[in-house]
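Let us practice reading a record.
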Amino acid sequence: MHQDSKSLAALSQAIKAAALEQGFQQCGISDTDISPESEAYHRWLENGYHGEMGYLENNIDKRLDPSLLVEGTRRVICVRMNCLPPDIQTLKILKNPDKAYISRYTMGRDYHKLMRKRLTRLGKAIETLIGEFGYRAFVDSAPVLERPLARKAGIGWQGKHSLILNREAGSWFLLGELFVDLPLPVDAPYEEEHCGKCQACIDVCPTQAIVDPYVVDARRCISYLTIEYNGSIPTELRPLMGNRIFGCDDCQLICPWNRFAQASAEDDFKPRHGLDDKNLRDLLNWDEATFLKRTEGSAIRRSGYQGWQRNIAVALGNGINSPESRAALHSLLSNPDTGELVKEHAQWALDHLSNREDSAENPLPIAAHPRAAKLAD
């Protein structure tokens, strides 16, 4: 194909059509210059908001210029894919202190694998149109600043919770990128911002991790604490975590734009092993072999077995002070295979159950919000 402007514009449209055929809901094209993000990104790092995710301090030049990450890259094809499973309950689970709340995008097959496979297929589909060319797929991997790229590609704007929002789809979607060496025409960046004066996501965050509009302190974020962080969770944050054992969706659940979110048609996003409605004590009974088997091919593996037990222990400590919960925590303490980190959190949970005046409900600021009932479940 001759690379004149007319043929490149036609190719761009063909790529977007092919992206939809691969199961993506939107596709846009960006150039590789996201240097305007430099100041805010460096300030975020200087404030220590990345916690112990030290890798975010590496390869900053490649994050701000994707052409340095993959030599020859001239454009970034950005896609989004709906990830919310159909018929999923949220507030009902959050309000039940015996149940485990797991972030809704993680209960099925690992989205990294699913989307990377589809992006690779997209690359091969482009090859059928123009022949061999250079491309590489990324899904929340390598030093890629996917949200600024998505905004530049016209996918949406960055909400105050820092996630990308779309007027037709809210924020219940995942992002992926295909780096290509083609001089494709770029889409207009999404310049508008439709959050207005709303700051529901800031107000509802259980741990107040959104320290300023668009700025998240990962060290306070439940998603970071339960997934990325492998140490001792700060004691002042534990009571605020409720029954959230892997991730947190409150800022999305409360967002008014998610009235327009569409459920995913992908079977791979449907919950496995009943993880959308599971009792905390049942999950605590999983030994490591069971954990590894039932989280095979799942993003939940990221926490590791010790992190999984740690998180469940905290959730039990925030739940009902029942003989069953106390017995489960004592069993964890007496098990010779239980690690010291988990024992520390199990002992805290027992002490917290004994010392709390109200042992009936988790702290749920989202449940008290006037919009919550309309937006969730």
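A brief commentary: The radius of gyration is 22 Å.
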